[in-house]
Amino acid sequence: MNAIRRFATLCAFSAAAFGAAGAQAQQVDAEDAIAYRQSLYKLILWNFGTLSGMARDRIEFDREEFRMRALRVSNFSRQLSEGFGEGTATGAPTDALPDIWTNKADFDTKLADFQREAHKLYTMSASANEEALKAQFSAVAGTCKACHDSYRKD
């Protein structure tokens, strides 16, 4: 009986702790969310620059470097949605248009396209030839443009 009571108490404390953490995670300050997503975009751009240089033959192709940067872009892309929660359209200077939140389903589709193509670039980087990687890089860049055309200030 003692073991059952201890287990029930542990479950109650765990549920309370996770519930508090969940509630805290949902109460994101808009300014912090905007800073978070802007930081991710800067990290993506930092890595995208080298990928672009290799894809456009401005930098010598280095498979390991390409793969490392493609992995980063893929990982960062999967974190972006956290920065576009409800109530984060305003709160700090941002180039994100309010249409993101009024057309959320379309925005989410475009973000998922970016995430999918970025991950594909990373998986291809292990063995695909340079030309295939250049083509896939262009596909990733195209997903960026599609979203920026609709949801980013000029």
Word description of this protein:
The protein has 154 residues and is mainly alpha-helical. Helices cover 73% and strands 0% of the residues. It is built from six helices and no strands. The protein has helices at 2-26, 30-55, 63-77, 99-102, 104-124, 130-151. The protein is elongated.
How large is the radius of gyration?
20 Å
Helix content: over 70%
Task: Find the count of extended strands (DSSP E, 2+ residues).
Answer: 0
CATH C-level class is: Mainly Alpha
Assign the CATH superfamily: Cytochrome c/b562
SSE class: mainly alpha
Task: Tell the overall outline.
Answer: elongated
The CATH architecture designation is Up-down Bundle
Might you state the CATH topology name? Four Helix Bundle (Hemerythrin (Met), subunit A)
The main sheet comes to: none
Average predicted confidence as pLDDT: 88
Number of domains: 1
